[in-house]
Fold this protein.
Amino acid sequence: MAFLVGLTGGLASGKSTVAKRFAQAGFAVADADALVAQMYAPHEEGARLVAQLFGAEALTPEGAVDRAKVGAIVFHDPEARARLEAAIHPLVRERFQ
């Protein structure tokens, strides 16, 4: 029998600690934040999608997602956040599998 467990919670709620304990116990652990960081690297699919959504100014000169700029956009505009999530979440799910 296999289980898929998702860890959620706010900042400093212990998600990383619990994930480390799972890994130490021999469970496979996938980190969505790490997957997104990989996708936001220069010229990766996530970076291309962000540029399509918010323009080239949402990227660093190297071509990575400028997380501060994108954060400034999506944390003040719920529609922009929804568009970003609709584009990125399916990629994260695909990489989990």
Q: What stands out?
A: The first helix runs from residue 15 to 24. The chain has a mean pLDDT of 91.
